[in-house]
Amino acid sequence: MSSAATEVQPCEAERDAAQRRARLAVVADRVRPVVLAREHTLPLAASLVGLFPEGVLRRGITITVDGSGAASLAFALAAAPVHSGSWVAFVDLPELNLAAAVEAGVTLERVACICSGDQWAATVAALLGAFDLVMVGMGRRVRATDVRQLGARARERGSVLVALRGACGNAVWPDAPDLNLCAAGSQWSGLGTGHGHLRTRVLTVRAEGRRSFSRPRQAELVL
């Protein structure tokens, strides 16, 4: 009996993986954008424009997001594209605060939250091209070859691939991104002398990358 059970398990695992890929393909077909030649960019929130050389989010690039405000920065990055009709996929981000996403201006009707299971690279690859922005959590070790292939697929399909690494430098994205955004520090306002409420958070964001993003830039994001 144990031998028979051992033979069945791989088949079940393969069937589960196939079903997962099939479901993912259905979702991808439903939301796949039609990108015209003139639509090689996505809009940005006004507070982020200064971090990008052309003041727009160019399709096909790879971005890493660091710092304690990484999630807030990711929401700010997604807000304007989603408002203009784009779709965003959040992958392997189980603790994502969707209420904070809504507060940042992200419409949940155009958001998909996906768990990749043990099919990380295949899942992200399927989403690139189907979603305008694909934001992935860095809670696992990933292979450099997978990351390079996904970067190439993002360029080919016109999606923006964003890796949320949390605290600066604590997780490894094993290839140089086009752009790194780091929430370098924040300040709260609203408290008086021993009284009042925290009302506003100002996040200092530093941007640096390669090619057209090689010049360091800095901006303040009001949350």
Concise description?
The chain is 32% helix and 28% strand. It has 223 residues and is an alpha/beta fold.
Identify the notable features of this structure and list them briefly.
223 residues, alpha/beta, Rossmann fold, eight-stranded mixed β-sheet, two-stranded antiparallel ribbon, 5 helices, globular
Walk me through what this model shows.
Helix content is 32%, strand content 28%. It is α/β, with parallel strands linked by helices and 223 residues long. The chain has a single domain (59-222), classed as Rossmann fold (3-Layer(aba) Sandwich). A hairpin with a 7-residue loop joins β9 and β10 (217-222). The model is unreliable at 1-8 and 34-38 (pLDDT under 50).
User: How confident is the prediction overall: mean pLDDT?
Assistant: 84
Cα Rg: 19 Å
Please report the total strand number as a whole number.
Answer: 10
| Uncertain stretches of 5 or more adjacent residues | 1-8, 34-38
- Domains counted in the coordinates: how many? 1
Task: Output the structural class.
Answer: alpha/beta
CATH class: Alpha Beta
Separate helix tally: 5
Name the overall outline.
globular
CATH superfamily: P-loop containing nucleotide triphosphate hydrolases
Spatial strand arrangement across the major sheet = 5-4-6-7-3-8-9-10
Share of residues in strands:
25-35%
Oligomer: single chain
Helix content: 25-40%
CATH T-level fold name? Rossmann fold
Major beta sheet summary: 8 strands, mixed
